[in-house]
Design goal:
Pfam families: 4HBT_2. There is one protein chain. The protein contains three helices and six strands, in the order E-H-H-E-E-E-E-E-H. The two termini are about 15 Å apart. The chain is α+β, with helices and mostly antiparallel strands.
Length: about 140
């Protein structure tokens, strides 16, 4: 088993700017998409809980860029667990361009998420669900 969750993405023209490279905000969108697909594939009970009153609030996200990517580049967005506390989860993301010349790391990002429960006017931190902790162990950073 790989120590990360992989989401594959083919870049489209709508994700590029006038110069032709990918607009930076898309990297952050892909972090969210990768996290969503991880939950869909590995923790459907957590998705059911989100349909109830569990909320995953993104507290912080960032991205460092190493190389430009353009339309029709194929990416592997690889999500790893960095840490988990009582109520928060830290993720790391590697953005890897795939191609005939091999793999190239083009960006690296991070995201911090808080688990919350309650109505929108009274939302409070809650423990990370046990079932989510269990599946996150499969994508834990090594070392």
């Amino acid at each position: 088993m790989l120590p990360y969750y992989e989401y594959r993405h083919l870049v489209g023209f709508e994700e590029t700017n006038l110069v032709g490279n990918v607009y930076y905000v898309n990297y952050l969108r892909w972090q969210g998409r990768c996290r969503e697909m991880f939950l869909r594939d590995n923790a459907p009970d957590v998705l059911d809980d989100i349909r109830g009153d569990l909320k995953l609030f993104t507290l912080k996200c960032d991205c460092d860029f190493f190389a430009e990517i353009t339309a029709f580049d194929e990416l592997s967005i690889r999500m790893r667990l960095e840490d988990v506390t009582q109520t928060q989860i830290g993720f790391a993301f590697d953005y890897v361009r795939l191609g005939s010349e091999g793999e190239r790391l083009v960006a690296r990002g991070r995201q911090r998420v808080a688990c919350m429960r309650g109505p929108n006017n009274d939302t409070r931190p809650t423990k990370v669900p046990d079932s989510l902790r269990k599946v996150l162990a499969g994508v834990a950073s090594q070392g």
